[in-house]
Amino acid sequence: MKSQMDVARKAGVSFMTVSRVINGHDNVKKETREKVIKAIEELSYYPNAAARALNMNRTNVLGIIVPHDDYFFSSHYFVELLFSIEKRVKSRNYNLIFNISTAKSELRDYAILYKERKVDGLIIIAPLIGDIFIEKLIDENVPFVLVNGRHGKSDIDFVDVNNIKGAEEVISYLVELGHRRIGFISGKLNVINGRHRLQGYKKALKYHHIDLDEKLIYEGNWSADSGYQALSHFLTLDPPPTAIFCSNDLIAMGVIKAANNHHLKIPDDISIVGFDDIHLASFTTPSLTTMRQPIEMVGKRAADIIIDSLTGKLKNKEKVILDPELIVRSSCRKII
Predict the structure, then answer these.
(1) Which tens digit of pLDDT belongs to each residue from 21-64?
(2) Disulfide check for 230: which of 50, 104, 162, 185 has CB 3.0–4.6 Å away?
(3) What is the CATH number of domain 4-43?
(4) So where are the chain's domains?
(5) What is the topology classification, in CATH, of domain 61-161+295-322?
């Protein structure tokens, strides 16, 4: 079995230089780092993670916590987000482990991975509003960053998207096309993304002097099924909406399927807008107009924040709010 000393001999460097490369330190020249990595690969050397964790009091592993499985499994957005986080984490010599809590679980101690020294810190995705376990992390000084979440206390790191602004821009776009009867299908309102997109919808209607009709709001659950059911509800209204804003692209895909089953043409009979711009959004028929989240940047910033915090590079808490971008495709039309 090859050792770290074998790697040092083959690369022609010191034992400490190999240790610095393995542990992700920056104070190694590029050429030297490449020689060490090449030696590691040629010797098929795998560092003993357990021993390294004991020696350095760190694991170089981060935990990703998704507090509710229904939100996770209902959105392709999460797949793309997790991929972007993993890509960035690996580039900085860290690894990930995942923990997905069931929606009905009442005993979710997010800190357990940290307490058992399995991870150095946590990335928590889309926590429920008022989640008491976030308070527990703060009280126990567990390093963490929130993604798609906020907290009332100022002393936490988070990365989020300006969902209110994004929703406002969608409604403004539809109003410019002549729509004034605009349906809205929310995600679950116990997460900040769902609540903020609803706030943006209402705020934009008020700005454009359009009376709020509560019958035009349908509470979905981020799934395509809820989009399908919502359109059936909207078609019972007199008059039905001429456009529908969906809280994510998966909901929009459910609406598209329902429209086809009801023999409605998109966008001739009804316009549809999604949110997220997942990869599949450009492959719907017609292709989906949607509000693009900077998914890759969200994952990258979250990974950098927690790692920089652990390595002492961050002195202040990071509160990152990124702007979304409207992507106009073929699912909306002008009606004036």
Answers:
(1) 876 666 788 888 888 888 887 887 766 554 455 455 677 889 99
(2) 185
(3) 1.10.260.40
(4) 4-43, 61-161+295-322, 163-294
(5) Rossmann fold (3.40.50)
